[in-house]
């Protein structure tokens, strides 16, 4: 009898640990996914960038709306993006704030696009980024990324607050 | 007898895991707390920014000393801060180095204030940030944040080293 | 008999948890190690910076190749680096993407060197950073750090992609 009771306590502690570890893994995996965007896009690795998104994922950035991996890969291969790489650029995304809710998640971060030119390096753009993510069979993927330049447009600031509070758009 | 011995070994492994998971959770929760400052302050969400601090928490930044959540919320609502948002700005805080010691912690990071203006984006300020944090009933909160512009003043550089070594100020 | 079976299940769950927690700890420890570089180097703490590397670790940055902790500490104490600190600077490293494989790891991140001068703050350099790390008796240490300015040189962009895919150089 005593053994059975203790055993149930062990089962409960194991289950609690498994849930806590899974939560940490989810948060870490999403942070790693987003941390790989900048290095991959600056290397021009179109396939790997596209794989960060879900098959039907979207990327909506000022004046440009992409849907699906082909669209995203095409942006990386486009003349404007390849021109950035040729001159030197850094897409630096800041640390993400992540809210995980079961099999979906919301994340938010700032990003900077630093460009190299004749007079050295400049901040070409500072951007607000809101992500929704979904758990797929083989890991987390981006469902929607919405990005707006922080140039005074209200929408950009709203994205940041919504993401930090874990709200969908 | 054999069962009892094994059971003690299971208890020990469970306790060790629980301690390790709690350490990871503490570190992650503090990183998430600090990662939400920039997005919230750039959205002008005064209440949510203030809630990152302990009820009696302080924020000491060059030439401005705030104590308690009302002071911090007032800074977010102030004309100068609202002016930054209206023109476009990004408070980008870098990844934090965190030292947790029981129910208190020290964290450190750089931050950049990027502003948008007539000639595009500029780095308005690079800042050293030292945090002390305390575990409250409902999670970690900032006790003291001390920030100094990295404009050559010795104090700013000292803050960074102290924080990286887990030292209080 | 039933107890023995259940016990084996408990052992398996404990072992699985221990492996998952260790993976999270490895990733977190490496992120923390790299997050301490900027604050320590901006404080001029030569000894602590050198300790981030393995005894035989190397740091290869455009035009400068260092091997061993003495070389790295000497760079921190050098007149050029001390000059940066005296005028005000921020070595801000972005969030790292880490791949751990047993006792070795690859990590990648962008970094910015922000300098203060007569006309305020400027982005002096944006850099690609590729790290290999090894697990030592007392924790993870940097084996090789390879850094190249993102000024249009192809090598810098290749470093980023390799690191993001977990490849050695």
From TrEMBL, chains A, B, C:
Q: Which InterPro entries match?
A: NTF2-like_dom_sf (IPR032710), SnoaL-like (IPR037401)
Which residues does the UniProt record annotate as the domain SnoaL-like? 22-143
Q: Where is the signal peptide?
A: none
Q: State the UniProt keywords alphabetically.
A: Coiled coil
Coiled-coil intervals: 7-34
This one is known as: Nuclear transport factor 2 family protein
Provide the taxonomic classification.
Answer: Bacteria, Bacillati, Actinomycetota, Actinomycetes, Mycobacteriales
